[in-house]
């Protein structure tokens, strides 16, 4: 695979391979959870962030120097789930997890399902 710019990932596999090894497993787990909930979600890179589309942008995943992150892409969702997010590092619409830590799979599945439903409702309204 040739890349025009070594710092720009072409796809989610590329993005994950660009991260430190300690982050790769957690990113793969996040990806697998999203795909388990919405198997037909389209994978893409948007603004250099691994993202998933289901009608519209669904969620994204990523890494920074300290955390692996789930981008919920919904400020109302993080407000609605505030009590369920206790103990999780949250900034705005983003949930942060230490690489290698046990992910709150049930909560992540719930978030992805809620986002899928939001996108489906929005798509139906546009028809």
Rg, rounded, reads: 14 Å
Uncertain spans, ≥5 residues at pLDDT below 50?
1-5
Q: What is the H/E string?
A: HHEEEEHEEH
* CATH top level label: Alpha Beta
Structural class: alpha+beta
Give the strand order, joined by hyphens, for the main sheet: 1-2-3-4-6-5
Instruction: For the record, give the distance between the C-alpha atoms at the N and C termini, rounded to a whole number.
Output: 39 Å
- Residues in β-strands, percent: 15-25%
Helix share of residues?
A: 40-55%
Instruction: Let me know the number of strands.
Output: 6
Query: Helical region count?
Result: 4
What CATH architecture do you see? Alpha-Beta Complex
Q: Please name the CATH topology.
A: Aspartate Aminotransferase, domain 1
- Average the pLDDT over all residues and give the rounded result: 92
How many structural units, i.e. domains? Answer: 1
**What is the 3D shape?**
globular
The protein's oligomeric status is single chain
* Major β-sheet profile: 6 strands, antiparallel
Written description of the protein model:
The protein has one domain (12-126): Alpha-Beta Complex (Aspartate Aminotransferase, domain 1). With 127 residues, the chain is α+β, with helices and mostly antiparallel strands. The protein has a six-stranded antiparallel beta sheet with strand order 1-2-3-4-6-5. Residues 1-5 have low confidence and may be disordered. It has helices spanning 12-17, 21-37, 75-80, 105-126; strands spanning 42-46, 49-54, 56-63, 68-71, 89-91, 94-97.
Quick structural summary:
The chain is of the alpha+beta class. It contains four helices and six strands, in the order H-H-E-E-E-E-H-E-E-H.
